[in-house]
Specification:
The protein contains nine helices and seven strands; from the N terminus they run ααβαβαββαβααβααβ. With 313 residues, it is α/β, with parallel strands linked by helices.
Amino acid sequence: MSHGPQPDQPDHHQPDHHQPDHHRHQHDHRPGHDHAASAEDEAGQAEVLDLDAEVLAGHLAAVADWLPLAAGPRRIVDLGCGTGAGTFALLERFPEAEVLAVDASPAHLLRLREKACARGLDDRVRTVQADLDAADWPDLGAPDLVWASASVHHLADPGRALRAVRGLLAPDGLFALVELAGFPRFLPPDAPAGRPGLEERCHAATDRLHAEHVPHRGADWGPPLTAAGFALAGERTVTVDLDADTCDAGRDAVGRYALATLRRVRGAAAPHLDPADLDALDRLLDADGPDGLARRADLGVRTERRVWAARPA
C-alpha cells in the first residue's frame, strides 16, 4: 500500500502504495517467488514512496489543507499508508491528531515507525498490519478522518473496502480518497535525443498491463462512493508541474525520484519495448553513464492527483 506512484509489476498488487501507485498493493504470492527478490522489490518501492513524499510534499500539504473539515480531526486512519507520506502530512496539518497507519507490508510499517521516532512523533502514531482485501478488518476505532492515498485502486473489491470505511467512520467523519490521475513524467516530449517520446511509450506499455491487472486505476470514485453510502463533500484535481531547478526538494532529489521511478517502469515495460527503446532507457538509467538522468538539465515532474472527499450519507 502506498501514497505514491507505483509502477507495479503485472502480478504485484500491494496497495502505493504509487504504485505505476505507488503500491502498493497486497503482496506477491507467485508460487516459488524468490523472497530475496521480493525484499529487493519492496525496498525499491519504499524508495519511490519516500522520494514521492519528499519531492511532492507541497502538493500533498495542499491536499490536506483543502479537506472540507469543520474542525481538526483527533483520530485519523491512514489506509495503505506505505512509508508514511500521508501520515506525516496529516500529523503536520493537524497537530492535535493521532494517526493509525495501516498497511500490508511489515517493512513499510517499520520504515514509518523509524521515521516517526526520528521526528519525535512516535507518541502520535500507531501502526497496524492488515490486508485490506480481507473480508474482516482489524478494529480501527471510529476515526474522524480516514485517508486513503493511491491504495484503493489496487484492491480486488474496492466496493467492499469503501463500505468498510463507511462502517467505521464517526457519524460526522470524513473520508479522503486520493488517487494519481497519471504517473509522473520526468522528461520533455522530445527526449531523449534519437528516441523522442520514449517515456510515453514506456508508460503506454505499462498502461496496457495495468488495464488488465489493475483495472480500477484511473477510475472516477464518485459513483462507487455514493453506492457505498457516502455523500460527496468535494472533489478536486491537484496539478503537479515542477522544474527540477526550482523544486523545493532540489535537483538531486528530482533526479533520484526519476531514476527510482523509471527503474520500476522498466521492470514492467521492458518485454514490450523494441530493442532501440530499451537501449535508450538503459542509458538513461545508468547512474554513472554520460546519458544518465542525473546529468540531464531538462528534468521536471509532471503528474496529477485527484481527491474525493465524502461523508456518511
